[in-house]
Structures are given as structure tokens and as C-alpha cells.
Amino acid sequence: MPESTLAESTLAEKALAIHRRLCAVYGCPIAYFHDLDPVSELVSSLLSHRTRNAESGRAFKALRARFDDWEALIAAPTGEVQDLIAGVTWPELKAPRIQAVLRAVRERAGSLDLAFLREWPVPEARAWLEAIPGIGPKTSAAVLSFSRLRMPALPVDSHHHRVAQRTGLIGPKVDVGPAHAILRSQLPPDWDAQALYDNHEVLMLHGQRCCFHRNPACGACAVLDLCPTGQARSGARAMRDTVALHP
């Protein structure tokens, strides 16, 4: 077996082991947190970029309360949209971007309805979405996975990405965007939407509850034996403790 193929096989085995271990901790299958139509999920995802869930959730509810439909949001003054989403990060950028993305969807699809994507293979559906300026890999995957489309796409957020890097599933210089294709390739190709959603959720939850950005709780980590970063941190901590006890 070529060395590159062997490495990919080893990473796939590791990805599956991490998935199973974390599913045991966080409880799979995990219920979907949204039941939105795909265009609403698109708006929600655009709001959530670099923003806490509570703030993006409030902004989304404010838009839904103010506008009868997304056509009304497109027609609204951009300043009004910006005021409604003031709690998110960069509202001055997101307000015109959301309006521009919705216009592009309407122009390309003929309406604000993305239900037709359900009939497409996931790669083609993602490519169609990502051809629209302002929609990247995370957003396209979120629209297909989180919305009522319930398609087998794998989103990768910052928490998911951090856990994947620390466990060595992706390299230290792989950004979130390119990580989508790499991490998806490590999982079984026949996994359904629920399995891929579970994978995203358990890695995200682990990043939120254990593998923190600062001071990760490596001692309480269910995948410490699979994580070279955690093992290095634990080893360094043990050495410091030994030096402190025996100066």
C-alpha cells in the first residue's frame, strides 16, 4: 500500500474512533437544533459567523418578527436591517451581505426557494451555493445539513476545527474552509445525514465543553490517548509538577 494511502487509512480509523468515543460521551444520535427551511437556514448561518449563538439567535428572531418574508428583507433599507442585527459581529457588513446573497439566490433559482437542492448530489448542491459571493464551505454545509433538507453534508465550525487540529486529523496550518473536504473524506462515504450531523455536533460539543481554546481540560478528555496535543500538554504539566516537588 502506498505511504499516502496508508496515512489516509490510519487517519480514517482515528476519525472513526474519535467519533465513536465522543458519541458515547455526548449521546448519539443528537437531535437537530433547527427545523428551518433552507433559505431561513442560510440567513441564520450568515448571521452566526464569528458570533455567539445567543446573539445570532436574537438577531434572526428580530428579522423574522420585523419582516413577513425574506423578500421584504431584500426590499428593506440596509440601515434598518443593520439596526435589527446590531448584536452580531460586524452588522455593518452582514446586513448588506445577507441582502446581496438573497438577491443572488432569487436570481439564480428564480425564487427564494432552495428545496430543489434536495434532488442534487451533495457536491453539486454545495458548489451551486458556494458560487454565490458570501457563501463559503461552512455556510453551504450548514444549509444542506441543518435545514429541512437534511442532506449528508459535514459542517466544520471553529470548535470542530480546533479539536480536529489538536487530535491530528488535520494539520496545524489547515484553515476551516479546506478542512471541510479533508474531514469529510476521513468518514465513511455511505454515512447518512444524521451520522454526519452527529460527527459535527460531538466534535463541536467537545470543543465547547472540554477542548477549550485556552486551558483545555486534557485530564478529563475522553480521547486523550488519541490526541498528541493533549498528551504533550499532560506530559509537560507532569514534568513541571515533578520539578516543583523536587527542585
Automatic annotation (TrEMBL):
Pfam families: HhH-GPD (PF00730). Its cofactor is [4Fe-4S] cluster. Keywords: DNA damage, DNA repair, Glycosidase, Hydrolase, Iron, Iron-sulfur, Metal-binding. Residues 47-209 form the HhH-GPD domain. Gene3D superfamilies: Helix-hairpin-Helix base-excision DNA repair enzymes (C-terminal), Hypothetical protein, domain 2. InterPro entries: DNA_glycosylase, Endouclease-III_FeS-bd_BS, HhH-GPD_domain, HhH_base_excis_C. The keyword Metal-binding applies. One of its GO terms (biological process) is base-excision repair. Signal peptide: none annotated. GO terms for molecular function: hydrolase activity, acting on glycosyl bonds; iron-sulfur cluster binding; metal ion binding. Belongs to the Nth/MutY family. This is Fe-S cluster assembly protein HesB. It comes from Methylobacterium aquaticum.
